[in-house]
Amino acid sequence: MVNIKAFPKRDEATVCFAHVAYDLAGTFAKRDTGIKHFQAWNTEDLYSSLNAIDLLVISGMWNNDIIAKAPQLRFIQSIGAGYDQFPIEELKNRGIRLANASGVNKNAVSEHTFALILAISRHLKYGAINQSNHTWRGMISEIPKREDELAGKTLGIIGMGAIGSRVSTIAKAFDMRVIATKRDPSTAQGNADVVVTPDKTSDVLKESDFVALTCSLNDATRGLINVETLSQMKPTACLINMARGGCVDEQALITALRDGVIAGAGLDVVSEEPLPTESPLWNMENVVLTPHTGGETQAYEENVIDIFLDNVDRLTSDHKDLRNQVI
């Protein structure tokens, strides 16, 4: 049983927005809530103010030692959908509640998924290189080396949550066939043709021309894409990772890309971020990389604040359930 700490009144609470780039405090100020708040742009700012924080909006700057150094902390709002960085049992023992921001970037990430799919299928990476080199590429005789169309292709979605559901809807606009996995297929939304349970993931891999990872990182999905599962994919298939780097055995992926086990990959996340300069992924012709920016749009701060304020209203009105509640 979780021993939840009493939540302070709105006019007595202090909020810290901890992020190195997103101006969450500035966006929050425009809402004119009257709630005291400040932004920690770096860990030094954060740690110097931990004693005064009741509510913490954070993601990448999180460190477990914050818990012991923030005696007033009552609630953590994760800035992203992921929350694997937080020590759930310790937070429960301390009576600190936690919610994630699931759905905050479903539009952004689903659109980015297709940006990577299109970049691969339409050879946009090579187009950018040719432009930089002032090269006008001629027509290609070899059919397998040409750009390709998406209509009629099969998209496999691993994780039919908010993002996966919207990816499926976009896929249908391209006349693609969509198959997906979800723990409870009866709750699936979106436009998938077939939704199966995760134990049938291998069937999805075998049928798909593109495999999009939009799942959360947990014990069941860690290393989900590995030597064995990569061998189950078509040699013409491409992997799109919009989930977490830990969902993929990166060395197995590199080997598969080098040896032609699969045709290509679009990666917004990798095992170690920033990607080490010595990683082979930087120079692989059949890889399109983006620096974990799939969810980063001009609307991000507003979307986070919407979820956070909803939870503040719930907490201050003794509402038992939070939006996207983890604890």
Structure description:
- By secondary structure, this protein is of the alpha/beta class.
- The chain folds into two domains: about 10-105 and about 300-315, NAD(P)-binding Rossmann-like Domain (Rossmann fold); about 105-290, Rossmann fold.
- It has helices at about 25-30, 45, 65-70, 90-95, 105-120, 125-130, 160-175, 200-205, 225-230, 250-260, 300-315, and strands spanning about 15-20, 35-40, 55-60, 75-80, 95-100, 155-160, 175-180, 195, 210-215, 240, 265, 285-290.
- The strands form two sheets. Strands 8-7-6-9-10-11-12 form a seven-stranded parallel sheet, with helices on both faces. A five-stranded parallel sheet has the order 2-1-3-4-5.
- Strand 4, helix 4 (about 90-95) and strand 5 (about 95-100) form a beta-alpha-beta unit.
- The relative contact order is 0.13.
Write the layout of secondary structure elements.
Layout: E1 14-18, H1 24-29, E2 36-40, H2 43-47, E3 55-58, H3 66-69, E4 75-78, H4 88-94, E5 97-99, H5 106-121, H6 124-132, E6 154-158, H7 162-173, E7 177-181, E8 194-196, H8 201-207, E9 210-213, H9 227-231, E10 238-241, H10 250-259, E11 264-267, E12 287-289, H11 300-316
Parallel strand pairs: 1-2, 1-3, 3-4, 4-5, 6-7, 6-9, 7-8, 9-10, 10-11, 11-12
Helix pairs in contact: 5-7
